[in-house]
Amino acid sequence: MQPVAVIMLTAKEDIDDRVRGLTVGADDYMPKPFSFSELLARVHARIRNQFPQLLEEMHIGPFRIDNTSKRIMFQERELELSPTEYELLKCLVLNHGAVLSKSVILERVWGYDFGGEENIVEVYIRSLRDKILDREHKIIRTIRGAGYRVDIR
Q1: What Cα–Cα distance (Å) separates residue 68 from each residue in 53, 57, 96, 135?
Q2: What pLDDT digit, counting tens, does each position of 50-108 carry?
Q3: If DSSP codes are grouped into helix, strand and coil, which group holds residue 104?
């Protein structure tokens, strides 16, 4: 039997309802209305705490991300990445198919209190493209006026 994490989403918000939900087996309890970003953070926390093995190594297309050793393999070749390059590529790959704006990338990789220029993202994207030999920008795509998207075949 596979382990399961249960997060209850309900309109019932009284303390007795919360206690009952947790007592009958829920791992977490969120009354409506709830913030989707908070729900996502709680799901990530459950995975991190209850199923850490799921986060140790991930295979996504030609990428293999090893969180334990902070390494990324591309087409079975280990990439030599700085810590920031690792975090940026991981962010892009984990969100493959979605367009991430420079401001979202800055917040997720450099932190919300980063005081530098947005063009730092362009510099790091160029470096990553060089390292994965993406000369034609078919893997890390620039979406004009929107940001960047990783396309995985």
Answers
A1: 10, 8, 21, 29
A2: 776 666 788 899 999 998 899 999 999 999 999 999 999 999 998 999 999 999 999 99
A3: helix
HSE value, Cβ hemisphere, 13 Å, CA-based, for 120: 15
C-alpha distances (whole Å) from 61 to each of 41, 72, 90, 150 are: 25, 12, 13, 11
Cα separation, 148 vs 96, in Å, equals: 10
How far apart CA 120 and CA 113 sit, in angstroms, is 15
Full-model pTM: 0.66
CA-to-CA dists, residue 100 to 32, 62, 107, 129, 147, angstroms: 28, 20, 11, 16, 5
Cβ atoms 92, 85 nearer than 8 A: no
E runs forming strands in 28-153: 28-31, 57-60, 63-66, 71-74, 77-78, 140-143, 147-150
> What is the CA angle 111-117-121, rounded to 5?
70
